[in-house]
## 1
Amino acid sequence: MPQELSLGVDIGSVSVKLALIDTATNEVIFSSYTRMGGQPVAALKRALADLPELPAAVIRAAGATGSGRHLAGIVIGADAVKNEITAHAMATLAYYPNVQTIFEIGGQDSKLIVIRDQIVVDFAMNTICAAGTGSFLDHQAQRLNIPIESFGDLALSAASSVRIAGRCTVFAESDMIAKQQYGFSRAEIVRGLCEALVRNYINNLGRGRELKPPFVFEGGVAANKGIISAFERELGERLIVPPFYNVMGAIGAAILAWEEVAATGAPTAYRGRDALTAEFSPTSFVCEGCANNCEVVRVTMNGRIVATWGDRCGRWSESVDSR
C-alpha cells in the first residue's frame, strides 16, 4: 500500500463518488459510487465507512467537488474545495494530456469542457433540463421494462433507428410512446432515443464551439454503449472512456487537494474516521443586516458552527473557523 494517498469526494444531486489515489502516480487505489437517496451527509458517511482501514497519516490530503462540495468539504475536512469543471479537467489531463474535448453526463446534469494546450478555454453546463442525463435514462428503462444495464446493448442490436424528439424530456417520452404505438420495436426506439439525446447534447452545449478530438467521455452515462455509439456516429470519431469514468470528478478533487497541501506544506485538515461519528446539522436564516436580505446557510458540527455561506458581504462566513 502506498504511503501517501489523497482522497477526493464528488457529491452531486443523486450520488456520492469517492476516489483514493496514490499521490506519486495518480493510480486509483480505491473508488466507490454511493446513491444519495436525498440524504447527502448520511450517504457521504456510508461511503467514508467503506474506505479501507488505513493509518490516519497515510491520507495526506482530501478534496471535494460537485454541487454539494461545500457541505462535503466541511464533513471530511477538505484541503481544497473546487468546482466540477476544474476537477474533471484536472483528472482527465492527468491520464490523457492530449485531450481537447471532454463530455460529461451525470445523474442530473451534463457538462462540456473544451481544452487547448492542456488549458480549459471554454465550458458549458446544462443543469436545467434532465434530457439525456442518467436519471432520465433510468426512468425510460423502467417504463420500457428494460434493465438499465441492458439499455446500451439493446440499442446496438437495432438494425435501424427511429427519430425521437430529444430536446425535452416531456417531448421525448411522448414521442417514444407514439412510436411504440406505430409498431416500432423497443430496440429501434432505444437506439433512436440515444441518438436524440446526443443531438440534444451537442446542439445545446456544443453550439458555437469547435469540438476537436481526442474526445473523452465521463460520468455515469458513459457506461451506456448506445450513447457512446451515437456520439461516435454523430462526430465521426472514436470516444475514449476512462476506466474510472464515473469517479473522474473525485479523482480530480484528490489531485487538486494534494497540490494544495504540497504547495503550502501545511498538514491536512482531513478528519479521518472522526467524520463518521460527528453530527452535522444545516440550518438557514435570512440576514436583515442590509437590503440584500441574503439567505445564509449555517452548518454545525457537534453543536459548534463550522461553516456559513450565502452572505454576499462575508459578515457571517468570514467569522467561522471550520477546523
Note: The mean pLDDT is 86.
## 2
Amino acid sequence: MTVPMRDIEERLQGPEQTVHGGNIWDIADENTVRKGGLIDFSSNINPLGPSEKVYEAVRESLWKIRFYPQIDSKNLRIKIAERHEGLTYSNVIVGNGSCELIHLFTQTFVKSNTLTLIPIPTFSEYYYATCKVGGAVKEVEPKGDLTFDVDKIIGNIRENSIIFLCNPNNPTGTLLDRKSITYIVEYASRRDSLVFVDEGFIDFTRDPERTTLSSNVSKYWNLFVLRSLTKSHGLAGLRIGYGIASEEIIEAMHRLKVPWNVNCLAQAAAEAAIDDDEFLDRTRKAILNERIWMISRLRSIPKLKVYDSEANFILIDMKTSSLTSREVSNRALENGLMIRDCSSFRGLDEYHIRVAVRKREENTRLIRFFESLLGNA
C-alpha cells in the first residue's frame, strides 16, 4: 500500500505551519543548552524556571507514570476553579498547553466561512487554527503605535462571528484595559458572537487582578478566557494551560477534546504551581524590575525603536539601523543569543524583533550585544 500523498497535500492546502520562538533544540545540543551556552531570548518563559514545589510535586508523582492520567484533569480543574470566584470545575477546561485549547476552540465553534476577527499583529496560532477549519479570517489593522483599535474591532463584528484578543498582546506587549475588552464582549454578545481572550501573559502585568476578565465568565455567556502556566510558572516542557468560560462553552469543547490530553506529571506540576503564590509574586517583581531596566537601557542605544510593554518581552523596531530582523537574529546567534525574528508576524515587517525579559546577567549580555552591533552598523 502506498501513502496517498496527493490526498494529504490537498488537505493541507492553506497557510503554512506557523513559526514560533523557543526552537532551541534545533540550534543547540542538550549539553550546550544545559550549561547555558545559548541564552534563549526568543521564548517568553519565566527565567527563574519552575519553583521547587513544582519539582517536588513531579518527583512525588513519578509512580503515577504506569497509570493513565485523569481523563479530564478533574482534580486540577477543581483547584483552578477555587482560584476564580464563583466558578466550579465545570467552568474549566485544561489543555496540553494553551495552543491545544486555541485549536480546540476553533474546532468547536468555527464553521466553514465563520467570520473570525483577528487584530494584528498578534499570536499567529489564532490565524492558523481558524484557517485549518475553514473559517474566514478578517484581520483588523492596529493604530500607528501597534495598539488594538477598539472602534475598528467593534465596527467589524457581525452576527455569529468570533473575535480573538491577546491581552497583553504578543508580540507587542500592549495591554487593553478591562473596560475596553468588556465593551467588545458586550457588543459581541448582542450579535451572538464569541470573544476569545488570551491572557497567557497576564501574570506579568503590574496588577493582574484589575486587568483579567476571568471573573467575568459567569456574567458573559460568550466569553472564553485562556490562561497559561507555561510562561509564568516555567512549565514549557510539560505543556499545560487552561481555559475558563460558561458551562455551555466548556461542555461543547469537552465533547471534542482528546481523552487523556494532559499527562499525570503535568497535572501534578500545575496543581503545585497554582498553590505557590510566593513564587509567582517573586516572579512578577523580578520581571517588572528587569523590564523597566531593559527598556531604559535599550532606549539609550541609537537606532532602536523600543515599544512599551506590560509583558515579559519587548518589541523592537530595527528599521533605522537598516539591519533586518533576520540579520540581527543571525548576528545574535553568533554571540550565543537567540532572539525572535518577528518578520513572520502578520502586520509586522522584516525589521521587527522581540526579546524576552530574563535575569540581569543575561539581559546585560543582550544590551552589550546591541551596543556592539549598532556601534558597527
Note: Residues 277-299 form the longest helix (23 residues).
